[in-house]
Fold this sequence. Notes:
Layout: H1 10-13, H2 17-38, H3 41-51, H4 56-59, H5 61-83, H6 86-103, H7 110-139, H8 144-172, H9 176-195, H10 215-245, H11 251-278, H12 281-301, H13 306-321, H14 323-334, H15 339-367, H16 371-401
Helix pairs in contact: 2-6, 2-7, 2-8, 2-9, 3-10, 5-7, 5-15, 6-7, 6-9, 8-9, 8-11, 10-11, 10-13, 10-14, 10-15, 10-16, 11-13, 12-13, 12-14, 12-16, 15-16
Amino acid sequence: MGRSSTSLPARALRFGTNARLNATIAYYAAFVVLGLTSASLGPTLPGLAEHTRATLQQASYLFTARSLGYLIGSFRGGRLYDRLPGHPLMGLAILAMAALAAAVPLVPILWLLALALALLGLAEGMLDSGGNTLLVWVHGPEVGPFMNGLHFCFGLGAFLSPMLVARAILISGDINWAYWIVALVALPAALNLLRLRSPAPRSGAADKEADGNDRLLVALIAAFFFLHVGAEASFGGWIYTYALRLGLCDAARAAYLTSAFWGSLTVGRLLAIPISVRATPRQMLVGDVLLGLVSVMMILVWPWSRLALWVGTCGAGLAIASLFPTSLSFAERSLTISGRITGWFLMGASMGGMSLPWVIGQLFERAGPRITIELILVDLLLAAGVLAALAVRASRVARCRA
C-alpha cells in the first residue's frame, strides 16, 4: 500500500468501533487459514508425488502452477475489491480454498492436480489482496499495528501447518487428513466474513504515480522482491524434502523443521516492530540479508549436522521475516507509490516465489538435495548485490530531488 492508500473518503471511515473490531478479527482468522494453506504444499509434496505417481522433479511444477494462480489472484484482485463488496469476495475466496484443499489429496493425475493448485493459488491471491486492502479501509491512517498483526496471523498459520501435516501422517499414514482439516477450519472463517457488513470502497480514480519516479529504482526494488521471496518460498517449500532425503530427519521431524522455519519467521515479524522504531529500512534490509547468508552458509558448511540444520533454519526464518514489509517501507521513502507501482513489486514477488522452487525441483534428483541450499545461497548473494545497487540508486534519486 502506498501513502495514498490511507487517504480515504470520509464514508469509508464511518465504520463503528464494534464493526472495526469484528472485521479485524475476521481478517485475522482469514489470514491464519491463508497461512495454513500456503505452507501445506512443501511438507506434502512427496505425498502428492506418490499419489500422482510422479517424480519430485515432475511434482515441482505444482509450485509453479500454484504461484501462477497466486500472481493472477493478487495482481487482479484489487480491482474487484474497488467495485464489489469486500467481505463476500473474501468469504467466497475462502470457501473456494476449502473446497480445493479438500480435493487436492484425491486427485490422481499430475496435470489435474496442477490445475487444482493453480485455482487454489488464485483464491489465495484474492484473499491476500482483500485482507490487506480492506484492513486499510477499516482503520485508515491508524492501520500500522493492525497490519503487523495481520501478517503475524499469516505466520502463525504457516507455523502450524507443517505440524498439522506431521500429526496427520503419524495418525493416518497419509497426507489426506491434513488437507481435510484445513478445509474444515476454513469454513467458520468464511461464514464469519459473509455475515459482516463490508467497509465502503475507496472512491475516485486510481492512485497516480509521480512523474519523478525513477524507473531503474522501481526495477531494482522489484528485482529485490523477486530474489528474497524466491528464497522464502524455496526454503519453506523444500527444507522438508531436503532434510528427509539426506536422512537428517524422519517425516515427522522434517515437518517440525518446516514449522521451525515458519515459527522463526513469525517471531521475526514481531521483533521487527520495535527494531523498526530505531533502525532505518536500509539498515534492517542489510542486517536481514547478512543474517540470511550466515544461516544458509552454516547449513552448507556442516551438511550432516542436525544442530547446524536447525540453527540455520531458524536463522533463515528470522532473516527473511521482515524483508517484505521493510522493502515496502524502503520503497515508500524513495518513490511515490501508486497501485501500478505496487503491482510491479507484487509481480516481482510472485515471479520469485514461482521460479526458484521450480528450478530446485528440476535439479533436486539429478544434482542431489544439497542443490537446494546452494541455490538459496546464490539467490541471497544476488539479493545482496541488488540491495547494494538499490542503495546507491536511491541515494542518487534523493540528491536529485533535494
